[in-house]
Design goal:
It is built from nine helices and no strands. Helices cover about 80% and strands about 0% of the residues. Helix 1 packs across helix 9. About 25% of the residues are buried. It has one domain: MetI-like (MetI-like fold). The protein has about 220 residues and is an all-alpha fold.
């Protein structure tokens, strides 16, 4: 049976763990945004070796499980002299994994820019950097913001997998509370409600940004 007394008792511990979940999600999303753009630019590079490396990295990461990648980063790299904290390993693993998906999102946005825009930039004698900064990216990124928002929401719901590398986020906290008291209903219900609030709030922010940019 549901106990409000027990639910209120464990709520502070879950809310404390929520900070880790939110921090891990947003830091990992920032990593994914930056690395995803770099991968897209690398794949479009005229340097064949760089382009092939970026393409191979994207295909490898997208076709291997996130959990395996996290295990490798957290448990294997220390044997080669690179020891990371659970939080850092988690955000790097989650960020790199989703950077490969965002790379495809960026690519779709860039390919939607009309060829005439590239020709106009060349006619104005823009450098490659100026072309990307002033012409291509400002036109290619806004249309794909809704898709990026969807990946942010997905990343919120993926954070429980970080418990596999000992990061104590809200799902792991709920499991620990349940194992100590043998009461799982309250803990998992609160965690589910918090995930719903986080996901719904994120979707509202994305919709607001979408409307502000007149994407509809």
């Amino acid at each position: 049976m549901w106990s409000w007394e027990y639910a209120l008792q464990i709520l502070p511990q879950i809310l404390e763990a929520l900070k880790i979940t939110v921090s891990a999600t947003f830091v990992a999303f920032a990593v994914a945004l930056v690395v995803g753009l770099l991968l897209t630019l690398a794949r479009r590079s005229h340097y064949k070796l760089l382009s092939l490396f970026a393409q191979g990295f994207v295909e490898f990461v997208r076709n291997t499980p996130l959990l395996v990648q996290l295990y490798f980063i957290f448990y294997v790299l220390p044997e080669h002299g690179l020891a990371l904290t659970p939080f850092l390993a988690g955000v790097i693993g989650l960020g790199l994994h989703y950077s490969t998906y965002l790379a495809e999102v960026y690519r779709g946005g860039i390919e939607s820019v009309p060829p005439g825009q590239w020709e106009a930039a060349k006619a104005l004698n823009f450098s490659t950097f100026e072309t990307w900064k002033k012409v291509i990216l400002p036109q290619s990124i806004p249309p794909v913001i809704p898709v990026m928002g969807n990946y942010l929401i997905t990343m919120f719901k993926e954070t429980p997998v970080l418990s596999a590398i000992t990061l104590v986020e809200i799902m792991q906290t709920a499991k620990m509370l349940g194992s100590h008291s043998f009461r799982y209903l309250e803990a998992f219900t609160i965690v589910g409600a918090l995930f719903l609030v986080l996901s719904y709030s994120s979707s509202l922010v994305v919709k607001s940004l979408e409307a502000r940019l007149n994407l509809r």
